[in-house]
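Exam revision sheet. Question 4 asks you to relate a sequence to its structure. Input first:
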Amino acid sequence: MLKGQRGLVSSMQVGTYVVIKDMDNNLQLVNTLESEIRAMVEAARVPWGADDVEMKLSIVKIKKRLALSKEMVEELGKATGKCCREIRKARMVVVQGVIKRPNN
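Answer key, structure tokens:
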């Protein structure tokens, strides 16, 4: 019985480690996205009375940042989905371990 419990605890530890690593990756993506959004806001700060060239340059910068941000949001969505799937798998491993454990 103790052997089965050790295996169950070991599975839980591995699952927890994987989820924590995934969450760290998601946090890095969120931090990068936050930086991109700040850069877009900064690019939008055009001085009052700026000429057309400055305005157009600012718009081009914002469009580039926006495209990059869209890609990051998509990547974050995929990473979050992966993390959720791995959590579900880990839960199933634990549940199966509990179900298969002998009733001594």
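Marking note for examiners. The helical segments are 2-44, 52-100.
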